[in-house]
Amino acid sequence: MSAGLGTVHVVGAGLAGLAAAVELAARGRRVQLYEAGRHAGGRCRSYLDAELGCRIDNGNHLLLAGNRAALGYLERIGALDTLEGPRDAAFPFIDAGTGQRWIVRPNRGVLPWWTFSTKRRVPETRAIDYLAALALWHADPSATVAEVLAPERRLFHCLWEPLAVAALNTSVERASAGLFWRILVETLGRGGRACCPLVPRDGLSETFVDPALARLRAQGAEIRFGARLRALSLGADHVAELLFDTGSIGLGRGDSLILAVPAVAAARLVPALTVPDAYSPIVNAHFLCAAPRGSPPLVGVIGGAAEWVFRKREVLSVTVSAADRMVDRPATELRELLWCDVAAAYRLSAHPIPPARIVKERRATFLASPEQVRRRPPSRTQWANLLLAGDYVDTGLPATIEGAIRSGFAAARQVIGATDLRNRGRGVTGRYRIASLDEQAQRRFSP
User: Fold this and answer.
1) What is the pLDDT of residues 169-201, one digit of tens each?
2) Do 113 and 172 belong together in one domain?
3) Structural domain harbouring 379
4) Residue 242, CB-side half-sphere exposure with 13 Å CA sphere
């Protein structure tokens, strides 16, 4: 560790906190990481399901080759080789009502000539239909996706709606048009090269969590589980003390705090902090069933109960976003309902229904409505040594893996930048150059 630098206390070991800690430790900062629970990763982790007898992910999180922050994080922790996926972007769909199948295949370059090919675009759509998405660019901040795009169009039903609901975890009637535009800019707007789907070969923990903890420990970071932060002792311009259930930790003038806890916890700890306060549920179903050899890594379901089905090592997993209509239904009913779509998507028999685990997340992410987007706080606070990180912070992205990691990197780099500024004021030469590691990793992994 570099002499003369204070400790950075990172509270919360979800992906935002892990990303912040990893970036800081790599830059030679002394890091102490605290997690209230027994496991790191937050909503992004794997565990052994005793009933199914195999490891499953607690949710389905799709990574794309253009997710620069996420790939930069994996590069930093040495886990890029734990991802796998097809060389080219290909998104298979099935219409649950008619059985019709098609594959959306964006071309690798930025110019979207794929929209001129009937073999690459949604059936019964025209190239000009896709230009309608440009209306999102200048949409009023209060506008929703359904207000800007045309819900009666086939393209809306078969592409824009499933993409928006999956990315924002909010119905198109309520989802922010501006936030959806940012998603399109960073995915289809960068061409098919940026849209290649990437999935963990083994599981979320094996890709995002375990390598990060190992790297942090190797770099001397202190990690404490079961450390629940009860309160902050706040001075006029800085945080003076962290009050945990097990004791207190004082912060010196050179120390910093990155608060990477959920929005509701941040609002409890930081006075007058405005955060999103409405949430949207997700329902996941994991079926103990192997997909046929050569099956695609994911299939989108149009007009069914399921929305996206993911092929994993031992299970087929279903995600239903913005699942208000399903979250209160009994697991036995959901098992039967969702398996119908899984069986159709992967050409399997409808009976017997394999064993399944239904996972309901009632407060999975903040509701990505225009009203809630306006409640997202910046990373900086009025206290000089306190920064916020988390998928609810204003990153310009919805509550995704990419957004969470980006928030952690941003908070870490602000800590480093503030330290450099103080050192320059003391006549000390700054030693920490902020490299675009995320862009380096994206170029390295890009097919």
Assistant:
1) 999 999 999 999 999 999 999 999 999 999 999
2) yes
3) 7-43+204-274+371-445
4) 23
